[in-house]
Design brief:
Chain lengths: 388, 388
């Protein structure tokens, strides 16, 4: 089995691009990734593409062929949909295809157009990632669902809105020099606490924005990388996936995300690493509480201790384990179907040393990406390593 | 590399089930497949699930976790969407996972709920599988698109509405004893010709119906089959996928489906067989003309000769190469996201000898399934063989 190397990465600016379609956004990210890789588009054997709400936002399903067409490649393409983990799920299958010799060159990525719907309609559209019969009909949307999880966490382990605000403050600071980020501005804890509540205890700054954007990575076999003399020092050495009950009411607890735990366990075993070996991570902070749950599920801190990781500085840029150096979903933005591969793109650049925040982890060798769907009813975790 | 064995198959009745959700339908098909396989649900390591229009028909995306939950399995699940080839795309990745040792037991399947939208809205919903910018906005829906392809075919190679009607007559006859089929009744050529035109030259009986239903197969590694002493004589020995421009206007010709040709080429090479070795096939006859194009792309007949295959008896139950012994999409029905794996289920039963139409091909050893998305902008082909 050969490792799947990340030969190149590409991102669009994440933000408000109401005049651009998913195919248009994906063309920019995908061609940038191929250019970064130095790979001839004619060599691409398949496109593994994530998109979540194209049916609702663009009246466009069947986006796989459009994604291949956007790159000008004559290759089969498949669209993966696993809510906010769509691109993570796409990348996972692409990684397995490459390492098992099914293909030498694949593009994995995703795109999402969201802002054209408007905030209220987008929140309703996003809710289709929850259980329509048992959650959405009762009025549940994701801010409310994550607010329940935050409340349950506070009840079980303690913590405060200040602790959550520290997550947002950290991630905004990390995005300050990220040219692709939706928000390149610092915020303060007071600003976060004074902002309007969205669903108590979560306020405006506990929530990621609505984002248009795309991302892509080029995965190649080691044989292909060698043959074409590619500069591809980073490999995806571990992949894992987990699932959980869709509706919160059907789970044993609101304060654990076992799907992410299972995904992490599988990815670590796959890569042959432990949580202790991880130098840097991108996690799915759709809401600040989600980052807290993520770092616990990934084994970076004990259960119940994630809440103070940001306020204590553990996960900050100069902390022991920097989390979301890109700015995370909170500040970089969250174009749903593109987020998973954007994490892999950011981490690849951090490991290669050409990320604006690479200096924060100058000797980083092992990175982890955590991509979650819904209230973590699905989760995909990847381990990236510097292999040469 | 171990072959992926089809240990079990399951289908719901295909038809009008407006009171049933996709998860409900999938539970029935998936549990039937596990029961047929004699596999403990606790052994299932993943669910590869196809669904096309859940967002529009059920306000439900992120159906992967629901599919796993429906089977009562604690395993990760991913939803694949490639229009009408969704379940084929799901099965393809599942096959590769099993044969490459990534998993020993996977369920591949799909479900679709369609009738609750009503005919006009369903036709509009289906149109999101075409190019929204360049086809749908101009008024194109799939009956119109396939009518253009039929007209182009007639112009290029000749043929008549009678030839197309022969396809429908054959497929209706094949479904007569299929307890899962939407239509268990014979039709005549005259009935087909006298029926209302939908989009000239295609009439009502040239078009598949709107269908609710689900299908599933259980894929296991040879090691697992041996260890559990499973009766699983059929393997999926070849898988292939192809892609094409989404919009008809961007293609060189309307009378070829190169995505299906590429998928067939790959699947045959993968299995180490040729078209001449195929004993029986299920092809994607969403419209009668689609079956004609399919058998040409699969190499069963020369280009331009597919039009008379049904009227000449080549593809009939007692012909040299029986096609759509299940009744095909035309008579069995076409629950979009479930069709790909329903073809694999039908062919497995034919090869095992326990299908109502198995007697038509008593010594069948090699079967082919052809599943297409949109106007064949995506295509997945699988080769099934009796391996013990």
């Amino acid at each position: 089995m050969s490792n799947a190397r990340v030969a190149g990465v590409g991102l669009t600016h994440f933000g408000v691009h109401p005049e651009r379609t998913s195919r248009d956004l994906f063309a920019e990210a995908g061609l940038a990734a191929l250019d970064d890789a130095g790979v001839d588009p004619a060599d691409v054997e398949g496109v593994f593409y994530g998109n979540f709400m194209g049916e609702l936002a663009e009246s466009q399903g069947h986006q796989g062929p459009l994604a291949a067409e956007a790159l000008g490649v004559d290759a089969p393409a498949t669209r993966f949909e696993s809510a906010c983990a769509s691109a993570g799920a796409a990348a996972r299958e692409a990684v397995k295809n490459v390492r098992n010799g099914e293909a030498d060159v694949l593009v994995a990525g995703g795109a999402e157009r969201m802002n054209n719907l408007g905030t209220a309609s987008t929140t309703e559209a996003l809710a289709i990632a929850a259980d329509e019969l048992y959650e959405v009909r009762a009025g549940m949307t994701f801010p409310g669902a994550y607010a329940l999880m935050a409340d349950a966490y506070f009840h079980e382990f303690g913590g405060s809105r200040e602790d959550l605000a520290a997550v947002a403050v950290k991630n905004h600071a990390n995005a300050l020099e990220n040219e692709y980020a939706q928000f390149q501005r610092e915020i303060t804890v007071d600003e976060a606490l004074d902002a309007p509540l969205i669903a108590e205890p979560l306020g405006l700054f506990d929530s990621c924005p609505i984002t248009d954007g795309a991302s892509a990575i080029v995965l190649v076999s080691e044989a292909y990388a060698d043959e074409h003399d590619l500069d591809a020092p980073v490999a995806i050495t571990g992949t894992g996936q987990g699932g959980d009950k869709m509706a919160l009411q059907d789970r044993e607890s609101l304060v654990y995300t076992p799907a992410a735990e299972a995904a992490a366990r599988e990815a670590y075993a796959d890569a042959g690493v432990t949580a202790a070996a991880v130098d840097v991570a991108e996690v799915h902070d759709c809401f600040t509480i989600a980052e807290v749950l993520a770092i616990e599920s990934l084994g970076f801190v004990e259960v119940g201790e994630g809440i103070t990781a940001a306020s204590d500085g553990l996960t900050s840029r100069d902390g022991a384990l920097p989390v979301n150096l890109s700015g995370g979903l909170k500040a970089k933005g969250h174009p749903v179907g593109a987020t998973g591969t954007s994490q892999l793109a950011e981490l690849t650049r951090i490991l290669r040393g050409d990320h604006h925040n690479s200096p924060a982890v100058p000797d980083a060798e092992v990175a982890v990406a955590h991509n979650a769907g819904g209230t973590v009813a699905s989760a995909v975790v990847h381990v990236l390593e510097v292999v040469e």
